[in-house]
């Protein structure tokens, strides 16, 4: 157990700071997963989770990590040897690709530089070239947790449509769901993959597949072996609020509460809050004189900000300084950017003062670790958050 | 939420009554699953869980239900089309068989009457006949949760050995682990499948594979597609206390506490306690004039007792009476015995007075539902539990 | 921490088994007791608690044990040397008398045999004799926690009225509030004293004074020194939902939830449930061949039953047997009946199966401790609870 | 319930942010306060609390707010009409004085300007003048929660000694205990008054009297009426770990955990941490160009900082802005400084990043509320906390 005084700042890009209400909801006695009380709960969460995905189609809830929902999305819709087009947006795209290959799929990777999200034009080009429709699915990570770039899902959908290509469209929203606007139905996604431990504000242990009719149709002929991940029995049992095997009851209690909290706040306000904290964070990074990994401002993530350290600086050493001195966990650089990047998670149950504590810890960590920077980040964030300096010359502030 | 006064009696054969200490342990903030604090936790639970399986080999912990661990046991050790020998001990054996088939395995079922556990002689006979060693694995359910019969695992191991058969030996201990003596190493099991929500006293959401060297060796050539369930990366990461994908952090907090509680009580005392409650329950059933489903007294389960109702009685209606009147969940009859049987779970964090409440609820339910019986079950259980009537004629009790 | 397996049975007559919902409500972060969020809470509990006392007058909430509310009732209404008439119903009446004397009041005790509640006729007689109205207050314990006898409050009110005596009427409902019908306004009580840890299903730490106009009027001239207990500032601050000094915030969270639970169930159903469990308990006691301490069936308490052991039996030794063997706490005999009596609490968040576990623990404890008895108590309770044997000859039960 | 996203910042000078471990400890089932398990707890907390007061004498634990412990200190040691010398250090000194008068004591107030703590010389002067030893007790607030000034207790003790005056020395440490060094024995205090909801990191509901032999001796002849607060029975029962009336069991669970946490961290480190956060806060206040209420740097409180707003600014309006915009509660100015001062609590379970969030909220609040200031406070605090700018010219920081 963490024995440093005060609250730990869990500012990795997930798992996130779980709200007390959600933790307490999970701290209730486990119930009979075949009884009437569970049935009411099951119906409530199966319905509520659709609002979060902005879909009227079924959403499957797995007692599993997000990785399981990646596997489920592929295993239910594809057959051994099928070709899947993926985009190398970062580490999680790379892991999903590796997973696909372990399942016996062929994959093709449109290479990326880890500083931009998936590019609709590159995807369009590849699909146009695929006259024989060998590609069975296009897999894109919405919010690349390793880089903090957000892919333009509607534009990719248009690219697929304009190519007249029948491939399924599979999207990973693990670190965007409940933090960044995502519309399963309106954006024409076939399978959306989600997880509990980010914007949904739950501990890890639940993951999701939101479906489309086309995905369901595909599942009927898909020949990848599957049992735990199989949608079919799930959908049958879910109709009555039940599950074909024992669900993770207490995590579902938490999900029930988390959905209620998100809908009470209102999704649009949730997204605006994340965008605001993201903007404040980028202003801090700029004020420090450091560089945000994501090159395209239009793609900046509302969930996290990956920050590049100057050459010669060890980002993991920096993170250790912050953890040891300030009881805050930051995200490591992964894969290609390991050691060069640290990531600030600003998602989930989060507010302005938590962000200031977070940015303050980074700023002091830069001091202590000896990373060259201007000590002006927190103040820049405050200028933005207080909305004050926006409007110049209001005379309220005495010059320093 | 259950709004009947007082505590719900969750007397299904799992999920079980989760102890307050375990619920409270899970109600702590989620931590960074890549940080040093998690690492210490990871090492502790990965080591501690071995004691529960009575093994010195690795145990894999999945963020998944028990069904996932069934799949994992097969997917890591077998190849498409492999033949698996199973024994029809009850509903869970049947479900495991179905799962195996969905994975692309061939199965053979030694039929059973659901009133006895897997029979070593029948298995020996079949293995002896399998001169070509077509059978790649023997799968047995240790404690059949649908019937309350316990299979003689050491005898089955001997049967395999005496047949000189190279098949792997896979055992499901989902409802026996932490309740009924089970010794992975000593009994020569290759893969043991476990779950969190029974004797381990946790909510559902974690499951386990305990391995043998032979199983690990088999995994190297096994060709069933697998990624989430793959042991290989798990074992690499587990060496340092970490996991290849996000673990179910808060359930691991609970596991840490549950292991501590089981080892503090001492496994042999835990098993004795379950055996004692099982014996008391059977005495109650006999006193009621009802029949225990399991025919062989040597196979009576320490975890649960399945009770046959007289012909013409509807066990599900009876269970509904008990739930509505007495706020107690009993287990339904499953599959072949649906509607004929109800099951009393007496496992997990349980004691004598909880058992008396349980048996009292059954006895009163029999009254109200109009099931013919003698109203002497609770008193028979008390005679046994108080240890009193054992020794005749001590003169303490005034005749009624 | 209790390390015996399963749940502890806390069957003393308070503190009682606190419901999970109440414990979890208390497990939320402490808030600013001067802020708007607290204000809403304060208004809610100050209003809700009136429903429990069945009054439209103010109820004072103290951060203190019930003993503090005893002191408050006297200190706010009386002056040094005032004479108070009390009735020796049992240990708690005796303690209240001792407290009054420590405050500088004179007391007069109508002696009782601890087997009946306060007697309206004896009180009437004494008041009629008090022509000079020297007696300033009549203090009665509604439910004597040491004996399990319930005083006829309306009859005592009538006695006071018929004597035309101006004395204040102060009633202790610590172990009846929320368990046994009590009507502050309708029954004309001037100050009602209550506590949190019994029928209100909270941990100890809050206590109450419900007031009448006459009590408020008396407080203006009462000269006992008081500050912490002073009603005046409380009433001023309470108007806006606040308190004059720091309130026990987290216990108030629990109170808020407990009031909601009681009103959701409905007070009349709460009282009926307690009466039913009390009746079942007495039937068990009779079936054991033991004697209930309270001699008058009309006065039997819905909260607890005090049981006399036969001469020569040590009730405390018996209780130790039950605690050591069965993880159940029973109440000790107090004062005059110490060692001769044990008390079974059957109040608060309680249900039929918890009662059967409780009675089963007593019955087995009698076996083990060697207390002569008939082993028929639990079954007698079940007959009553199942409502079965009420209606003879329905032929459902097979003779034993 | 607070429904703004993220954690509330409870930065009033108590109640403080209760650690999760303490909340969870309180969220365990209530136990029998007369049983062996409670006895072990009682002994543990009664012993442990002495370490916190740095005394080897008994400490009384009341189920009451701090106000109750004020009353207890007086009621146990004094008689009606006794003269008590108090020092007007601020609002809490004034409230204690008012309380003393309600109990029937005479009081004399050495007037103060609310910007300094109690002055040893003024006290010495008054005691020297009291040749007849009419003054029976000197009452001083150690850390004046309304002003943030800390009184020099050892110097006041010396003043009493040097005057050769027999008055008792009573000290209120409600907002210093567990935050600012206080040594009951070494400093020769007769009664120390403490509360649970500040440095002890508990919710409100417990309060304390630490005693001296002289105080105990005085209690034998003290004639103020008392019962609930009476030390005598407490001390008798406490010897065996029990209490004369029902204790606040679940708050004691929390106390047990809180003591363990404080002793694990080590009192000297706890005090240093508070001093450090206090210093950082003052540097922020200075950088803002605002004034700390406490005039004497040697008396600056480690628990809280009271900040004066410029003339014409409404501190309560400012606090409302901070609460509404940033979900943070700050302390109001009380009594003489109402509306002119706001108070920042930086005590209890607190760390650097929580402080930065706190100061950031104040700084942004000043922006929004239009309070003239330099926007340099958070950065000044970071300079101090990171320990960086202390040592000039280390060349790590790029000039802005």
Automatic annotation (TrEMBL), chains A, B, C, D:
Binding site for substrate: 343
Gene Ontology MF term list: alanine-glyoxylate transaminase activity; L-serine-glyoxylate transaminase activity; L-serine-pyruvate transaminase activity
Signal peptide: none
Keywords from the UniProt entry: Aminotransferase, Pyridoxal phosphate, Pyruvate, Transferase
Sequence ranges assigned to domain Aminotransferase class V in this UniProt record: 10-316
Keyword field contains Transferase: yes
Keyword Transferase attributed: yes
Residue positions where N6-(pyridoxal phosphate)lysine is found in the record: 198
Domain of life: Bacteria
EC number assigned by the record: 2.6.1.45
InterPro entries: Aminotrans_V_dom, PyrdxlP-dep_Trfase, PyrdxlP-dep_Trfase_major, PyrdxlP-dep_Trfase_small, SP_NH2Trfase/AEP_transaminase
Reactions it catalyzes: glyoxylate + L-serine = 3-hydroxypyruvate + glycine
Cofactor(s) the record lists: pyridoxal 5'-phosphate
GO terms under biological process: glycine biosynthetic process, by transamination of glyoxylate
Pathways involved: One-carbon metabolism; formaldehyde assimilation via serine pathway
Similarity-based family: Belongs to the class-V pyridoxal-phosphate-dependent aminotransferase family.
Descriptive protein name: Serine--glyoxylate aminotransferase
Organism, scientific name: Hoeflea marina
Lineage: Bacteria, Pseudomonadati, Pseudomonadota, Alphaproteobacteria, Hyphomicrobiales
């Amino acid at each position: 157990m963490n024995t440093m005084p005060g609250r730990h700042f869990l500012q990795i890009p997930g798992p996130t700071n779980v709200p007390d209400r959600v933790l307490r909801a999970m701290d209730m006695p486990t119930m009979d997963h075949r009884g009437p009380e569970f049935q009411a709960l099951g119906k409530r969460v199966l319905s509520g989770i659709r609002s979060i995905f902005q879909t009227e189609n079924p959403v499957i809830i797995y007692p599993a990590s997000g990785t399981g929902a990646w596997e489920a999305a592929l295993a239910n819709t594809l057959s051994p040897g099928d070709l899947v087009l993926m985009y190398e947006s970062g580490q999680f795209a790379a892991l999903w690709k590796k997973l696909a290959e372990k399942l016996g799929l062929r994959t093709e990777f449109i290479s990326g530089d880890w500083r931009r999200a998936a590019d609709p034009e590159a995807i369009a080009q590849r699909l146009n070239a695929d006259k024989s429709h060998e590609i069975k699915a296009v897999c894109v990570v919405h919010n690349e947790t390793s880089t903090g770039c957000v892919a333009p899902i509607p534009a990719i959908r248009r690219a697929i449509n304009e190519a007249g290509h029948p491939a399924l469209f599979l999207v990973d929203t693990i670190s965007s769901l409940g933090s960044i606007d995502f519309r399963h139905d309106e954006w024409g996604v076939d399978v959306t993959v989600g997880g509990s431990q980010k914007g949904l504000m739950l501990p890890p242990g639940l993951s999701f597949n939101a479906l489309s009719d086309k995905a369901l149709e595909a599942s009927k002929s898909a020949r990848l072996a599957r049992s735990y991940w199989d949608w079919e029995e799930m959908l049958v049992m879910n109709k009555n609020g039940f599950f074909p095997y024992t669900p993770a009851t207490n995590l579902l209690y938490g999900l029930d509460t988390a959905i209620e909290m998100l809908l009470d706040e209102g999704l649009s306000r949730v997204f605006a809050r994340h965008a605001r904290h993201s903007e404040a964070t980028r202003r801090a990074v700029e004020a420090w004189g450091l560089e945000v990994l994501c090159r395209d401002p239009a793609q900046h993530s509302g969930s996290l900000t990956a920050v590049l350290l100057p050459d010669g600086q060890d980002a993991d050493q920096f993170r250790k300084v912050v953890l040891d001195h300030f009881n805050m966990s930051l995200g490591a650089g992964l894969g290609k950017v390991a050691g060069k990047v640290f990531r600030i998670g600003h998602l989930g149950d989060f507010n302005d003062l938590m962000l200031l504590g977070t940015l303050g810890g980074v700023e002091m960590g830069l001091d202590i670790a000896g990373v060259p920077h201007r000590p002006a980040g927190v103040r820049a964030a405050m200028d933005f958050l207080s909305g004050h300096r926006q409007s110049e010359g209001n005379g309220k502030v005495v010059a320093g």
